[in-house]
Specification:
4 copies of one chain form a homotetramer. The first copy, chain A, is mainly alpha-helical. The first copy, chain A, has 2 domains: about 15-55, no CATH class; about 55-250, Cytochrome P450-Terp, domain 2 (Cytochrome p450-Terp, domain 2, Orthogonal Bundle), CATH 1.10.230. Chain A is built from 12 helices and 5 strands. Chain A has a 3-stranded antiparallel β-sheet with strand order 2-3-4. In chain A, β3 (about 25) and β4 (about 30) form a beta hairpin. The radius of gyration of chain A is 22 Å and the shape is globular. Chain A starts with 7 loop residues before the first helix and ends in a 7-residue tail after the last strand. The mean pLDDT of chain A is about 95. Chains A and B meet through α1, β1, β3, α2 and α3 of A and α1, β1, β3, α2 and α3 of B. β1 of chain B pairs parallel with β5 (about 265) of chain C, so a sheet runs across the interface.
Chain lengths: ~270, ~270, ~270, ~270
């Protein structure tokens, strides 16, 4: 199975991720028995998805991003839906899938959009624009295409600041000091914070999506994978909550307690 | 939000997993900023889902189980479906959810069933039965309830042996030698191998599900979480394949090449 | 494509549902252009799924069952989840799938279980047991296997009676009077109502699941299809609610209003 | 529950679709027991989703669109995935959801895009442009925004023509002759066919998506609902195929037969 077979059926599905023969499995050229016990789970994630090595301070940054985003509580629609599903007579896998499925453009997409924004600004800097000017141009371009909301900054609940972001940024700074990453994206993120402060007259600090996006962009991953990695991370919370709900019990648990159903605002019933 | 509020609406969703206030997030009592950068991703998974500490050789075993099961190729229906979904105009999250959703009792359940089987046999041993007798009784009981197929042993493709299993077992032995786990479940697993060999007259060696189930049972996790952790692990392969497929392109990619559609075996068409 | 091809790839997917050639589509032997405009949507559903004709009073019964179960409001976890999904930046199809996915054994399975119960009792009658005795034996057998709860009878909310059930039963009676169905299953359902009344000392009337199951069993459909047809019916409500929610707007809408989040009942945070 | 309650919890979920009290259910003001047995399933769909009456020739058109799109065979990724799911140990509901979930922008979106295109062209006509000019401007605008592919026209497999489209168009013409619809959208669709013919020098006839979109646009439904209604229709095929596969059996059925796995095109394995 090591090279294009000429059999159009076998060639219909092609992959550089996994090679297999009876008794043998290799992931991107490395035998599985050599990986088990020697690479960390985050390194395995990176190896499988990105196909490049990830070590030392860079691997620790990636691990920190995965750790930071595991859960934001049953108020989040994805977690709530996974808990509801767990009371409907489906397996844990389906409860988890229910939640992951809801990490769409709005609920799971801010990190992806922030990586795209940072990358765009970095490209402007590389074309010899000064950072403040590149940030200004990047924000303008983003708003023209995608609307007023800058992804990765500000938080409706965590005031004054999302506690995950400064901690993640500190780790990026440390990795940059060690030369493991350039630190250029962190700089861009802070410049965006400054620009938003100047615009609004109040702090609009980086949130979890903005901070993990700094890490993903520093590590060179394409924007859609920021959402992919977020899905891996949040799957942990989905599993934890679905399982806790199963242990609590409940049958067909709706969003609000039975006494508070919903409000009907349609036409009166014919009598 | 730290204790039951007496507000029936707030009490409708209760959790011991996450506590939150503006600017503050704690997972099972530990502030998030203290966890980021200090615990590994597998430790975070265990902390969130199980609520107990996991360190040293035990954490390494858990990590090995997560690393081992990430992917088994586009022949697996879950991976194939995720790749197909990636050509249908949905987000990466939906492609991943499509695959996780399919890790049902048959595709994702063998590890869960194997943990239940091991745990049952361990309980029989604890009631003072000798190991061979407990294994025999456990296998009989399992077959009466669930049919002939013993989960976690034998493999249709990997002959003579699934390369992941011996490597995982070696790590369990090592952890047992260090006193980190009892090694009792590994012993049970091997006794099952022996019993199946005697029955069939040929080797029916432990496969990936049987071997990861040894680890999960040694660590004391309830059977359904074996499936839950498998879902976390396989989500990595789902992401890798969905992303690779998106990069390859394709629109509405079906299972087989266009020239080989399907066979109709119904009534002839009226003319 | 009209018969087994001998090509193992084309034979891998076999179906009696659809036959196709360029410019030609036939469903179970009937050209599509002959079906469009001549069969009703319920008849098409039955034709495709069951492969047998369905006409006159029998078709009207099936249609009534599909009409009756379209929605039970945003308190149902499936509808709530579809509405939440609609605020997360996914397509209408994903919002609908989120809800259908949650119609599991508990949320969507009562009709399936009721068809199995009725069918079992009918088989006991056919073995020459009197109806009351067959009902008693059927209920006992069901409870031994599946627990105390008799599917399809009683309703937590609709007291004294689920308004859909008597209307559906009246239609079954009418079809039985016309000789379109036997009416035997309706009789069984009413005998179960009587037995439960005698047991509990209060009415436990048939609900929507019990009444649609009478129809499905009268029409001869296998138990799992009762859930399948329910999924088709409830998909209508899922679409209506997901679309209404999209029109209302909202981003990442959680289960309860922001002021009422959730209750934390875990360990105190380390300070 | 008939009007805004002032209770912020009850007001969190608002709907004009369903009103409920113990023993009473009304859909958009009509008691359920009055609808059961008197409205057709398509009329119920329209009533619930659109909230307006649909009768006579208009209802028959809607029914024809629902009937026409139920299935396109196991080569379609959604149907294939539902069949695969059916072999993985999940319920029929999950197998169906797997397929619906994949009806994304590419696999399920052509009808939605075609309604938007027709509506745009109709608006240009209403601004006093001649039809050919409006079609030309509409196609140009669509291509600038969405690329070269005009949704709803041409078919990779059905040459020379998709057999469903002419039949659906004939029904629209008949309804227009009766004055039930304007017929204006059908005219637009045919003008697009003409324009594409002139461009390509060969026929690019309307396909199922283009023809059902004519019906949906004639009936005045917003573009996203074209996808929603398609999901309802295709759910029928998903159910039929998932059920047939369950009856055929199979465990973890992958896309291609075991002898034809996949092609590895990655780096060579380290030895």
């Amino acid at each position: 199975m090591s090279e294009p077979s000429g059999d159009p059926v076998a060639d219909w599905w092609r992959t550089a991720i996994i090679d297999m023969a009876p008794g043998r499995i290799a992931f991107r050229g490395r035998p599985v028995e050599e990986l088990i016990g020697t690479v960390s789970f985050p390194q395995m994630i990176w190896h499988l998805v990105m196909g490049t090595p990830l070590d030392g301070a860079r691997a620790r940054l990636f691990e920190a991003a995965l750790v930071a985003a595991v859960d934001h509580g049953p108020q989040a629609p994805s977690i709530a839906a996974a808990r509801m599903a767990a009371t409907c007579g489906v397996g844990l896998n389906t409860a988890m899938a229910t939640g992951v499925n809801m990490l769409g453009d709005v609920h799971g997409g801010a990190g992806e959009q922030a990586v795209a924004l940072y990358t765009d600004i970095a490209a402007r800097c590389a074309e010899d624009h000064a950072l403040p000017e590149a940030v200004r141009a990047g924000l303008d371009a983003f708003r023209r295409e995608a609307g007023a909301f800058i992804p990765g900054f500000g938080h409706r609940f965590h005031k004054p600041v999302d506690p995950r972001a400064p901690r993640l940024l500190a780790l990026v700074d440390q990795a940059a000091a060690e030369g493991a990453v350039s630190g250029r994206i962190a700089e861009i993120g802070r410049e965006i914070e400054g620009a938003l402060y100047a615009e609004k007259g109040k702090p609009v600090p980086m949130n979890i999506d903005g901070a993990t996006a700094v890490i993903y962009a520093e590590l060179g991953c394409p924007p859609p994978l920021a959402r992919g990695f977020f899905c891996l991370s949040r799957s942990v919370g989905l599993l934890a909550h679905a399982w806790e709900q199963m242990e609590q019990g409940g049958r067909n648990k709706g969003p609000t307690p039975p006494g508070h159903r919903w409000t009907y605002d349609g036409p009166p019933s014919a009598e």
